[in-house]
Amino acid sequence: MRSLLLGVETTCDETAFSVVTGDRRVLSNAIATQHELHAEYAGVVPEIASRAHVERLLPTLRRALDEAGCMLDQVAAIAVADRPGLIGSLLVGLSAAKALAWSLGVPLIPVDHVHAHLFAPLLDTPASLEDLTPALGLVVSGGHTALYAIGSATDIRMLGSTIDDALGEAFDKAATTLGLGHPGGPLLERLAADGDDKAHAFPVSRLGSDSTEFSFSGLKTAVLYAVRGLPQRGGVFERDHTALSERQKADIAASFQRAAVGALALKLERAIDQWAGPKPRTLLAGGGVVANRSVRNALETVADRHGMSVMLPPMPFCTDNAAMVAGLATLLPIPEQGEAMSASPRATVSR
Ligand code: KG4
Ligand code: ZN
Questions:
Q1: Separation of alpha carbons 296 and 132, rounded Å
Q2: Would the CB of 186 count as within 6 Å of ligand 1?
Q3: N or C: the chain end with fewer CB closer than 10 Å?
Q4: Contact 168 CB / ligand 1 (< 6 Å)
Q5: Cβ atoms within 10 Å, residue 230
Q6: Are 300 and 306 in contact (CB under 8 A)?
Q7: Protein residue whose Cα sits closest to atom 8 of ligand 1
Q8: pLDDT digits (tens, 9 = 90+) for 15-61
Q9: What angle do CA 190, 292, 321 make, to 5 degrees?
């Protein structure tokens, strides 16, 4: 039982703890979401997020231990997401993780939250990373959209990322324009199911003929104009979403989703075409947007076309969770503890 890892995740607006075994079996996955606190602002408010983490930390830890049926003194290491994220939110989780590691006398393993999304598909599977690499990685979440070449858990190279909005952010903003709630991704997906995805020819950004970077701001603006009409003098719009029928809104949602998924597929194809060295054997994908059925189908289609296997996390491991943090830690060497225990949170993405 000493091989249990405790994962800690507070990078954005989910407070999460998870107990995972050394071979990545997830014994508990406790998540306290803050969606209700941020809904009225249609986005995450950093100050509110940090305070809510402080309040929810210990009850969520308690829940993770209870669900796993274990005690803190059975934990062999603490894995914490210390980058990238909202600085206040990171400070809460990293400080808690250091205190736990210090008091239990166990190692602290800081991990990159975006990299943790990449390896979430390996949770609760017997798969061995050596059999999957080289792998093409994709993270599509509310804060990140990027492609990676993965050689191992410590050999991860970014091939391209978004130059403006993350795809989850574009889903959320399009949902807000359509008058849906927060977070809008799942609500927009539901609305799109009733729409005609060819009703609007929204732009699929290419960024030249060989770029593996993404851009979703043009798509977001196209949705804004489709819903609200063209801006008039003084930035006033002709109408808002209340002027549209449910059918018209569903058509916009479906057309948005088709363009978004088209952009993902295009850049995946380019990344495979431009791959240096032995071709990728596997597509590993993670992040909240991978919960989307059309996105999952598109990833499966691209991987199939190139004879690659695809591993996608089950829904609870797509959006932010601490199981993926502990899961990645099982693949990493235990760092030198003087350095780990004096680590500062890093708000920005590692490249
Ligand atoms: O990975 P995640 O929980 O947080 C970040 O690390 O950013 O991703 C959250 C994002 C939100 O933008 C949310 O709207 C989006 O994932 N999302 C979805 C779906 N479920 C969550 N987007 C599209 N379709 C979904 N079903
Ligand atoms: Zn995330």
A1: 19
A2: yes
A3: C
A4: yes
A5: 8
A6: no
A7: 288
A8: 999 999 999 999 999 999 988 888 888 788 889 999 999 999 999 99
A9: 115
